[in-house]
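Hi Y.,

Following your request, here is the sequence exactly as I used it, all 332 residues.
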Amino acid sequence: MSEDGEFLDRLRAVARRHFGAAARVTPLDRPSMGASNDTLVFAVREAVGEQHLVLRQESYTGAGKPYISPAAQYRLLGIAERHGIPAPKPVFELQESDGLGQGFAMTFVAGETLPRRIVRDPALAEARPKLAHHCGEALARLHAVDPAEAEFLAELDDSRDPLAAQRQRLDTFDEAHPVLELGLRWLELRRPQQPQRCLLHGDFRNGNIIVGPEGLRAVLDWECAHLGDRHEDLAWICLRSWRFGGFDLPVGGFAEQAPFFAAYRDAGGAEIDTQAIRYWQIFGFVRWAVLNVMQGYGHAVEGRRSPVFAACGRNVAMMEYDLLMTLEGSYD
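Below is the corresponding structure, written out as C-alpha coordinates. Let me know if you'd prefer a different format.
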Protein backbone atom coordinates (compact mmCIF):
# COMPACT_ATOMS: atom_id res chain seq x y z
CA MET A 1 0.00 0.00 0.00
CA SER A 2 1.30 3.47 -0.87
CA GLU A 3 -0.06 6.98 -0.49
CA ASP A 4 -0.25 7.67 -4.24
CA GLY A 5 -2.94 9.85 -5.77
CA GLU A 6 -5.29 7.00 -6.62
CA PHE A 7 -5.07 5.54 -3.11
CA LEU A 8 -5.74 8.89 -1.46
CA ASP A 9 -8.65 9.59 -3.79
CA ARG A 10 -10.24 6.30 -2.79
CA LEU A 11 -9.63 6.90 0.91
CA ARG A 12 -11.14 10.39 0.62
CA ALA A 13 -14.21 8.90 -1.02
CA VAL A 14 -14.63 6.45 1.86
CA ALA A 15 -14.18 9.22 4.41
CA ARG A 16 -16.78 11.42 2.70
CA ARG A 17 -19.27 8.57 2.68
CA HIS A 18 -18.92 8.23 6.45
CA PHE A 19 -18.29 11.81 7.56
CA GLY A 20 -19.90 13.97 4.89
CA ALA A 21 -18.95 15.57 1.61
CA ALA A 22 -16.79 18.23 3.27
CA ALA A 23 -14.45 15.70 4.94
CA ARG A 24 -10.76 16.10 4.09
CA VAL A 25 -8.11 13.38 4.52
CA THR A 26 -4.43 13.89 5.31
CA PRO A 27 -1.97 10.96 5.72
CA LEU A 28 0.09 11.38 8.89
CA ASP A 29 2.25 8.35 9.57
CA ARG A 30 2.94 4.78 8.56
CA PRO A 31 4.05 2.73 11.58
CA SER A 32 6.57 -0.07 11.14
CA MET A 33 5.42 -2.93 8.93
CA GLY A 34 3.30 -5.53 10.64
CA ALA A 35 3.12 -9.23 9.93
CA SER A 36 -0.47 -9.33 8.70
CA ASN A 37 -1.77 -5.81 8.12
CA ASP A 38 -0.60 -2.56 6.57
CA THR A 39 -1.25 0.41 8.83
CA LEU A 40 -1.77 4.08 8.04
CA VAL A 41 -2.50 6.85 10.51
CA PHE A 42 -4.52 9.61 8.87
CA ALA A 43 -6.47 12.71 9.84
CA VAL A 44 -10.06 13.43 8.88
CA ARG A 45 -11.04 17.08 9.08
CA GLU A 46 -14.71 17.98 9.26
CA ALA A 47 -16.56 21.22 9.91
CA VAL A 48 -16.74 20.35 13.61
CA GLY A 49 -13.05 19.53 13.97
CA GLU A 50 -10.38 16.96 13.24
CA GLN A 51 -9.92 13.37 14.35
CA HIS A 52 -7.09 10.92 13.83
CA LEU A 53 -7.89 7.41 12.63
CA VAL A 54 -5.92 4.27 11.80
CA LEU A 55 -6.52 2.35 8.58
CA ARG A 56 -5.73 -1.37 8.73
CA GLN A 57 -5.54 -3.29 5.43
CA GLU A 58 -4.93 -6.99 5.05
CA SER A 59 -1.46 -7.66 3.64
CA TYR A 60 -0.71 -11.36 4.29
CA THR A 61 -2.43 -13.97 2.13
CA GLY A 62 0.35 -16.57 1.88
CA ALA A 63 0.60 -20.24 2.81
CA GLY A 64 -0.19 -21.29 6.37
CA LYS A 65 -2.00 -18.03 7.09
CA PRO A 66 -2.78 -17.88 10.84
CA TYR A 67 -4.60 -14.54 10.84
CA ILE A 68 -8.31 -13.86 11.02
CA SER A 69 -10.00 -11.61 8.48
CA PRO A 70 -10.21 -7.85 8.92
CA ALA A 71 -13.98 -8.24 9.20
CA ALA A 72 -13.52 -10.53 12.21
CA GLN A 73 -10.99 -8.14 13.75
CA TYR A 74 -13.48 -5.31 13.35
CA ARG A 75 -16.15 -7.32 15.15
CA LEU A 76 -13.71 -8.03 17.98
CA LEU A 77 -13.05 -4.32 18.48
CA GLY A 78 -16.79 -3.93 18.93
CA ILE A 79 -16.80 -6.70 21.53
CA ALA A 80 -13.90 -5.04 23.36
CA GLU A 81 -15.75 -1.72 23.39
CA ARG A 82 -18.93 -3.28 24.80
CA HIS A 83 -17.06 -5.06 27.59
CA GLY A 84 -14.79 -2.23 28.71
CA ILE A 85 -11.59 -3.79 27.37
CA PRO A 86 -9.13 -1.02 26.45
CA ALA A 87 -8.75 -1.06 22.67
CA PRO A 88 -9.21 1.27 19.70
CA LYS A 89 -12.85 1.80 18.80
CA PRO A 90 -14.14 0.54 15.42
CA VAL A 91 -15.13 3.36 13.05
CA PHE A 92 -15.92 1.87 9.63
CA GLU A 93 -15.20 -1.14 7.42
CA LEU A 94 -14.00 -0.97 3.86
CA GLN A 95 -16.36 -2.22 1.17
CA GLU A 96 -15.39 -4.11 -1.95
CA SER A 97 -16.47 -1.14 -4.05
CA ASP A 98 -13.95 1.10 -2.26
CA GLY A 99 -11.08 -0.51 -4.18
CA LEU A 100 -8.86 -0.63 -1.09
CA GLY A 101 -8.98 -4.33 -0.33
CA GLN A 102 -10.11 -5.80 2.96
CA GLY A 103 -9.72 -3.60 5.99
CA PHE A 104 -11.22 -1.15 8.44
CA ALA A 105 -10.63 2.11 10.27
CA MET A 106 -10.38 2.48 14.02
CA THR A 107 -9.70 5.32 16.41
CA PHE A 108 -6.13 6.44 16.98
CA VAL A 109 -4.84 6.00 20.53
CA ALA A 110 -1.75 8.03 21.41
CA GLY A 111 1.00 6.50 23.50
CA GLU A 112 4.10 4.32 23.44
CA THR A 113 4.11 1.00 21.59
CA LEU A 114 7.84 0.25 21.23
CA PRO A 115 8.60 -2.57 23.68
CA ARG A 116 12.10 -1.48 24.73
CA ARG A 117 10.83 1.98 25.58
CA ILE A 118 7.99 0.48 27.58
CA VAL A 119 10.57 -1.53 29.52
CA ARG A 120 13.22 1.17 29.92
CA ASP A 121 12.00 4.72 29.22
CA PRO A 122 12.29 6.89 32.37
CA ALA A 123 9.15 8.74 31.26
CA LEU A 124 7.19 5.50 31.82
CA ALA A 125 8.75 4.65 35.19
CA GLU A 126 5.48 5.30 37.02
CA ALA A 127 3.50 3.33 34.46
CA ARG A 128 5.48 0.09 34.66
CA PRO A 129 4.36 -0.90 38.21
CA LYS A 130 0.74 -0.44 37.08
CA LEU A 131 0.98 -2.54 33.95
CA ALA A 132 0.76 -5.90 35.72
CA HIS A 133 -2.58 -4.86 37.23
CA HIS A 134 -3.91 -3.29 34.04
CA CYS A 135 -2.91 -6.24 31.83
CA GLY A 136 -4.33 -8.80 34.26
CA GLU A 137 -7.59 -6.87 34.46
CA ALA A 138 -7.85 -6.54 30.68
CA LEU A 139 -7.40 -10.28 30.16
CA ALA A 140 -9.89 -11.12 32.90
CA ARG A 141 -12.51 -8.95 31.17
CA LEU A 142 -11.74 -10.52 27.81
CA HIS A 143 -11.91 -14.07 29.12
CA ALA A 144 -15.25 -13.29 30.81
CA VAL A 145 -16.90 -12.55 27.46
CA ASP A 146 -19.50 -15.17 26.58
CA PRO A 147 -17.86 -17.28 23.84
CA ALA A 148 -21.18 -17.19 22.00
CA GLU A 149 -20.42 -13.55 21.17
CA ALA A 150 -17.34 -14.73 19.28
CA GLU A 151 -18.85 -17.86 17.75
CA PHE A 152 -17.58 -16.61 14.37
CA LEU A 153 -14.12 -17.76 15.56
CA ALA A 154 -15.20 -21.28 16.49
CA GLU A 155 -14.15 -23.02 13.27
CA LEU A 156 -10.64 -21.57 13.12
CA ASP A 157 -7.85 -24.13 13.21
CA ASP A 158 -6.49 -22.49 16.37
CA SER A 159 -9.90 -22.71 18.03
CA ARG A 160 -10.46 -26.37 17.18
CA ASP A 161 -6.97 -27.70 17.99
CA PRO A 162 -4.13 -25.18 18.45
CA LEU A 163 -1.45 -27.86 18.61
CA ALA A 164 -2.59 -29.50 15.38
CA ALA A 165 -2.69 -26.03 13.81
CA GLN A 166 1.03 -25.52 14.52
CA ARG A 167 1.86 -28.96 13.13
CA GLN A 168 -0.12 -28.26 9.97
CA ARG A 169 1.60 -24.89 9.43
CA LEU A 170 5.07 -26.25 10.00
CA ASP A 171 4.44 -29.06 7.51
CA THR A 172 3.19 -26.49 4.98
CA PHE A 173 6.63 -24.85 4.86
CA ASP A 174 8.45 -28.16 4.35
CA GLU A 175 11.50 -27.23 6.43
CA ALA A 176 13.41 -29.48 8.82
CA HIS A 177 13.27 -28.17 12.40
CA PRO A 178 14.15 -30.99 14.81
CA VAL A 179 13.83 -28.75 17.87
CA LEU A 180 10.29 -27.81 16.91
CA GLU A 181 9.50 -31.48 16.31
CA LEU A 182 10.74 -32.14 19.85
CA GLY A 183 8.56 -29.35 21.19
CA LEU A 184 5.50 -30.62 19.34
CA ARG A 185 6.10 -34.14 20.65
CA TRP A 186 6.52 -32.86 24.23
CA LEU A 187 3.25 -30.98 23.94
CA GLU A 188 1.38 -33.90 22.38
CA LEU A 189 2.42 -36.23 25.20
CA ARG A 190 1.23 -33.73 27.82
CA ARG A 191 -1.99 -32.47 26.29
CA PRO A 192 -4.20 -30.97 29.02
CA GLN A 193 -7.79 -31.99 29.45
CA GLN A 194 -10.21 -30.04 27.31
CA PRO A 195 -10.71 -26.77 29.20
CA GLN A 196 -13.67 -24.45 29.23
CA ARG A 197 -13.10 -22.36 26.12
CA CYS A 198 -13.05 -18.59 26.26
CA LEU A 199 -12.29 -15.71 23.92
CA LEU A 200 -8.52 -15.28 23.57
CA HIS A 201 -6.65 -12.30 22.16
CA GLY A 202 -4.00 -14.69 20.83
CA ASP A 203 -1.13 -12.18 20.80
CA PHE A 204 -1.42 -10.30 24.09
CA ARG A 205 2.11 -9.12 24.84
CA ASN A 206 4.56 -6.26 25.15
CA GLY A 207 4.61 -4.90 21.60
CA ASN A 208 0.86 -5.10 21.11
CA ILE A 209 -0.14 -2.62 23.80
CA ILE A 210 -0.22 1.17 23.98
CA VAL A 211 1.14 2.63 27.20
CA GLY A 212 0.98 6.13 28.68
CA PRO A 213 2.32 7.55 31.95
CA GLU A 214 -0.87 6.34 33.68
CA GLY A 215 -0.46 2.75 32.40
CA LEU A 216 -2.23 0.65 29.78
CA ARG A 217 -4.23 2.65 27.24
CA ALA A 218 -5.14 0.07 24.60
CA VAL A 219 -4.64 -3.48 23.39
CA LEU A 220 -3.75 -3.75 19.70
CA ASP A 221 -3.44 -6.37 16.97
CA TRP A 222 -6.37 -8.74 17.34
CA GLU A 223 -5.63 -10.76 14.21
CA CYS A 224 -4.67 -13.94 16.10
CA ALA A 225 -7.82 -14.08 18.25
CA HIS A 226 -9.50 -17.45 18.70
CA LEU A 227 -11.29 -19.56 21.30
CA GLY A 228 -9.33 -21.69 23.73
CA ASP A 229 -7.71 -22.21 27.12
CA ARG A 230 -7.26 -18.92 29.03
CA HIS A 231 -3.80 -20.06 30.14
CA GLU A 232 -2.65 -19.66 26.53
CA ASP A 233 -3.10 -15.88 26.75
CA LEU A 234 -1.69 -15.69 30.27
CA ALA A 235 1.43 -17.64 29.31
CA TRP A 236 2.08 -15.86 26.00
CA ILE A 237 2.94 -12.50 27.56
CA CYS A 238 5.40 -14.33 29.84
CA LEU A 239 7.54 -15.72 27.00
CA ARG A 240 11.19 -14.72 27.14
CA SER A 241 10.76 -13.37 23.61
CA TRP A 242 8.59 -10.50 24.91
CA ARG A 243 10.84 -9.28 27.73
CA PHE A 244 13.09 -7.13 25.55
CA GLY A 245 16.08 -7.23 27.85
CA GLY A 246 14.11 -7.30 31.10
CA PHE A 247 14.67 -11.02 31.52
CA ASP A 248 14.25 -11.00 35.31
CA LEU A 249 10.67 -9.71 34.92
CA PRO A 250 8.76 -12.48 33.13
CA VAL A 251 5.62 -10.47 32.31
CA GLY A 252 6.64 -8.42 29.29
CA GLY A 253 9.93 -7.39 30.88
CA PHE A 254 8.04 -5.04 33.22
CA ALA A 255 6.46 -7.18 35.98
CA GLU A 256 6.63 -10.35 38.04
CA GLN A 257 4.02 -13.02 37.50
CA ALA A 258 2.55 -12.80 41.03
CA PRO A 259 0.97 -9.32 40.72
CA PHE A 260 -0.14 -10.04 37.17
CA PHE A 261 -1.91 -13.25 38.15
CA ALA A 262 -3.34 -11.63 41.31
CA ALA A 263 -4.80 -8.78 39.26
CA TYR A 264 -6.34 -11.29 36.87
CA ARG A 265 -8.02 -13.14 39.75
CA ASP A 266 -9.11 -9.92 41.49
CA ALA A 267 -10.82 -8.78 38.27
CA GLY A 268 -12.87 -11.97 38.13
CA GLY A 269 -10.49 -14.35 36.37
CA ALA A 270 -10.47 -18.00 37.43
CA GLU A 271 -7.68 -19.55 39.49
CA ILE A 272 -4.46 -20.08 37.55
CA ASP A 273 -2.78 -23.47 37.19
CA THR A 274 1.00 -22.96 37.18
CA GLN A 275 1.55 -26.28 35.40
CA ALA A 276 -0.81 -25.12 32.66
CA ILE A 277 1.19 -21.89 32.39
CA ARG A 278 4.35 -23.92 31.79
CA TYR A 279 2.63 -26.06 29.17
CA TRP A 280 1.38 -23.02 27.27
CA GLN A 281 4.77 -21.33 27.51
CA ILE A 282 6.33 -24.32 25.76
CA PHE A 283 3.50 -24.14 23.25
CA GLY A 284 4.17 -20.43 22.86
CA PHE A 285 7.79 -20.93 21.87
CA VAL A 286 6.76 -23.51 19.27
CA ARG A 287 4.03 -21.28 17.91
CA TRP A 288 6.23 -18.18 17.78
CA ALA A 289 8.96 -20.12 15.99
CA VAL A 290 6.45 -21.47 13.45
CA LEU A 291 5.20 -17.93 12.76
CA ASN A 292 8.77 -16.85 12.07
CA VAL A 293 9.34 -19.85 9.79
CA MET A 294 6.27 -18.60 7.92
CA GLN A 295 7.68 -15.09 7.51
CA GLY A 296 11.07 -16.38 6.38
CA TYR A 297 9.33 -18.68 3.91
CA GLY A 298 7.36 -15.73 2.58
CA HIS A 299 10.58 -13.82 1.96
CA ALA A 300 12.48 -16.70 0.37
CA VAL A 301 9.72 -18.47 -1.57
CA GLU A 302 6.56 -16.41 -1.90
CA GLY A 303 8.00 -13.11 -3.00
CA ARG A 304 7.26 -11.13 0.16
CA ARG A 305 10.75 -9.65 -0.01
CA SER A 306 11.67 -7.78 3.14
CA PRO A 307 14.73 -7.61 5.42
CA VAL A 308 12.30 -7.82 8.33
CA PHE A 309 10.84 -11.12 7.14
CA ALA A 310 14.29 -12.45 6.25
CA ALA A 311 15.37 -11.70 9.82
CA CYS A 312 12.35 -13.63 11.07
CA GLY A 313 13.69 -16.71 9.33
CA ARG A 314 17.05 -16.23 11.02
CA ASN A 315 15.43 -15.66 14.41
CA VAL A 316 13.86 -19.13 14.45
CA ALA A 317 17.14 -20.49 15.84
CA MET A 318 16.92 -18.07 18.79
CA MET A 319 13.43 -19.29 19.63
CA GLU A 320 14.52 -22.90 19.34
CA TYR A 321 17.32 -22.17 21.81
CA ASP A 322 14.88 -20.55 24.25
CA LEU A 323 12.58 -23.55 23.84
CA LEU A 324 15.36 -26.00 24.67
CA MET A 325 16.52 -23.97 27.67
CA THR A 326 12.95 -23.76 28.97
CA LEU A 327 12.37 -27.49 28.51
CA GLU A 328 15.61 -28.14 30.38
CA GLY A 329 14.54 -25.84 33.21
CA SER A 330 17.35 -23.31 32.77
CA TYR A 331 14.91 -20.55 31.78
CA ASP A 332 11.67 -19.64 33.52
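The longest helix spans residues 274-300.

Thanks again,
Q.
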